[in-house]
Design a protein that fits this description.
heterodimer; A: mainly beta; 7-stranded mixed β-sheet; 4-stranded antiparallel β-sheet; 11 strands; B: mainly beta; 0% helix
């Protein structure tokens, strides 16, 4: 199975500042079609997850442009600029290339 | 409007079985694959299984393989996850989710508690 490793597991931030979360995989996530199947999800306490980013850097509908994804092959980053209170919660990366799909352990974004 | 609603959770004894349902609306199961994902209390997300839109492909995680079975009834717009040989480690909220390039949509989850 593809192992997804996130860091840090906890990220204290000051509102208004930027935050970055790293995710690495032990297998390239580049498909034969040339696309890279790496997604980012956000889960607020007590809520269902919601996808923010698909294929490394594509924002889902309604996701603010403060959220950006970058990276290639095995190393990826989610960057949140101007962190707001609504951004708090847990962020997960997930590879969508190989079965079984696998998530990272999650990064908890919290107020410093 | 796309919507997924899980049901069927509850308290079950170790070794027993349970069948979860996911009723979908706003799309057809014959057009999109739907996944099951679970989350143990205070833990992260764990992908479990998917059934393809054409019903030809089923994929499972290692923890689900051999014990869980995904199925569907298109006429009822329902996806199922049959859980067998349940252990305390299977205690979790079980979500169904439509995850595709166009959009994602998750249900609210149904809680399964395995306890004697």
């Amino acid at each position: 199975d593809v192992v997804m490793t996130q860091s840090p597991l906890s990220l204290p931030v000051t509102l208004g500042q930027s935050a970055s979360i790293s995710c690495s995989s032990n297998h390239s996530l580049v498909a034969r079609d040339g696309d890279t199947y790496l997604n980012w999800f956000h889960q607020r306490p007590g809520q269902s997850p919601r996808r923010l980013i698909y294929k490394v850097s594509n924002r889902d509908s309604g996701v603010p442009d403060r959220f950006s994804g970058s990276g290639s092959a095995t190393d990826f980053t989610l960057t949140i600029s101007r962190v707001e209170a609504d951004d708090l919660g847990v962020y997960y990366c997930m590879q969508g290339l190989l079965w079984p799909l696998t998530f990272g352990r999650g990064t908890r974004l919290e107020i410093k | 409007q796309v919507q997924l609603v899980e049901s069927g959770g509850g308290v079950v004894q170790p070794g027993k079985s349970l069948k979860l349902s996911c009723e979908v609306s706003g799309f057809s199961l014959s057009d999109y694959g739907v996944h099951w994902v679970r989350q143990a209390p205070g833990k992260g997300l764990e992908w479990l299984a998917v059934l393809s839109y054409d019903g030809r492909e089923r994929h499972y995680s290692d923890s689900a393989k051999g014990r869980f079975t995904i199925s569907r009834d298109i006429s009822k717009n329902k996806l199922f996850l049959h859980l067998t040989s349940l252990g305390v480690e299977d205690t979790a909220v079980y979500f169904c989710a439509k995850l595709d390039i166009e959009s994602d949509c998750w249900g609210q989850g149904t809680l399964v508690t395995v306890s004697s």
